[in-house]
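Problem: given the chain below (618 residues), write out its structure.
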Amino acid sequence: MSAPEERTAPTSRPSPPATSPHESAPRETSPHETSLHDYALFRRGIEPDGRVPARGYPLPDGPPEPGRPGLTLREAQEEVASALADTLADPDPVRAAAAVHLRVRSLVMPHRTVRACVVRLPLTDEAAARRTGRRLVRTGTTPAAVQVGLGLLIRLGEPEDVPWLTVLGTLRGFERPAVAALDRLDRQAAGLLMLRTRVRDTALYPLLDAVEAGDDTATLAALTGLPPDFRTMGYARRIAEATDLHRLLRAHPRDPALLLRAAGLLRRMADQYDVRAEILDYGPAMETYETLIGHADLLASTPGHRAVLLSIALDLHSGPAALLDWRPGRREVLLDALGRLPAAPPPPDDAPDDPAERRRADWTARTGRQPFRVPPDGERLRIEVVAEDPGDRGGVETRILVDGRPLVPALFGKGPGESPERLLDTGLLRAGAEPREVRLAEAYCTEGCCGALYVTIRREGEEVVWGDWRGAVGPTPPEYRFDAVAYDAELERADRDRPWSWPARSVARLVSDGLRERPDLLARWDALRDWVGTVWNEPDTVDVSFTYWPGLAAGNRDRVGPWLQFGWRIPADGTPIEEQAAAVLDRLASTDPKSFAEVRGGSREHAEALGHPWPERG
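Solution.
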């Protein structure tokens, strides 16, 4: 029995290419039916520039992909197991592959679901399943059958499968499972495939071409020649893996441009604001940090480079990089080496006063010693508020360390810790007589999408207990117990220790405290406070956001009627922060803020009904 006997060949599928690097491999296809692997080779060969399109080449035309509304993963798992379990133990891969082609036709579900279920199937004979998976990847002619092969090789693939997976991964819907299989076998191939099929930034094309050509000189030039503002987002690790960054650094350890690019990639891998921090998945992370810091003196001569190294130090001190498998004392040695670097020279007196450069210099001055402080012996709990480089992202998060390990990346890893305004200023971390559930972190894509990390804080006699965790990734975390006196003292210290803050952020805090203590300041104008903070892309501006609810002051708020959200932006003007905060509160007390704030939320209909202009946005 052969696969072609069990299905009709898609009419639009091209003939196999005249030559193929895998032409000698036997296949279950007839002369008029091409394996998806050969189809992918053919598509790559006819592309004028050889570029893989976004998300890969489209699959050849065939029957519509089956789907079934309401199908649960448990039901799908049972159906896939029933259809395939005995075939995957067949010692004859040709016969097994033909049987898979036949049986997956009865599965009414997307081919991606088939693969997801195969990844979870119990296997009685892994060697037989590997041979069948290999056969399906090389000769399979239907998406569902090939996805079965990919699911098996994700678990069982070997180095000889790398070329086949690399080609098959250029097809739409196959790129992610192919990368998942390659991640176990060849991280460079996985990185290159991911970048080829996912990144559309043309600035990266020369780098990918150089890597694919095996030209180290061109790779080095293309990597260091990326634009200074190039944002890799979630692909920093893939760029490092595809270019074999660690090997390049070993070969060129004194190349300042390469050191700076390595620092930027490490920094982005430790970032938690856009994607999961990937520094823990980067195999040579510790060696790369070692090489970079060993030659960091070559980068310490400019304020911008010094700021990058300070960000690296913050990552090692209290960020995800602290969770790497460092041998005892080694991380502290690296931090000490960074702390001993000479300060960057101040700018000349006649240098232009660029606001961005000034903010960055102020940040370096405020933050410069934070990652190099030696904690007291025996310290169990440490709370660090970290403001990031304003020249990079400038976020602010509360980092909680227990026994020197940052909790949020260790237990959650899908977003940064909450802001100090939420955790410290409100007193949420304080332990009272009643247990309190506190959100420590929210996923970078919002809680509604990928969740959040919660802990319940309670006081038991002379101890404060953190337990009843919710939202943690992986095994349920243990309870953490802290001496209550030391716990309260640490909260007090963290609340007082505010070198991370800057004038506009401090004004925002005082305004927020004032509105919390006197809610009538806004309520008298039928308004409720939304938030008070600094604008992410204008850190020297205070932003006061509130919602207008007609009838609120009189106690008959119409919850179903029209409402509007307003925003008031106040530039920091250089006056003492207490005076500026008092001026903001006085104006709110004396003047209806709807008369000078701008509408920023609600609807045009609500604005017309309430007599306010709706903003026209470009």
